[in-house]
Amino acid sequence: EHQEAKNFRSNQIEELGVKVKVGLSWTEIKGQIVQLKAHDHSHPQSAEIYAKIDRLKSKAIENGFIFDSSWI
Question: What domain of life does the UniProt record list for this protein's source (predicted)?
Answer without folding.
Answer: Eukaryota
